[in-house]
């Protein structure tokens, strides 16, 4: 799978809330660094994210690649949480690719948490 295909498949699986499809894009033992959820295994992170989510809608804005092993997706994220609160924000997901460049090894998620922190805290307390 090419980098472009991998990135498209990731956003599609995120929009669908499809845990199996998301996990299939990562190597075993892959990790996520998230501003809201912290450092977690890919499986734990996406299981928790999808549990907190009623709907995700992403709109790809840019794809950046500095070398064959790193790719970043810049996208708009509309996140409808399980408590029906909706937050909209721009996000950058930076992926480290495996040696074959066909799966993700690590993802670092970057966005400003200030506009959505209260809604996130509410969903965690419910």
Automatic annotation (TrEMBL):
Superkingdom to which the source organism belongs: Eukaryota
Record InterPro entries: NTF2-like_dom_sf, SnoaL-like
Chain's gene name: SMKI10G0090
Domain annotation SnoaL-like: ranges: 8-98
Species the sequence originates in: Saccharomyces mikatae IFO 1815
Family annotation (Pfam families): SnoaL_2
Protein name as it appears in the record: SnoaL-like domain-containing protein
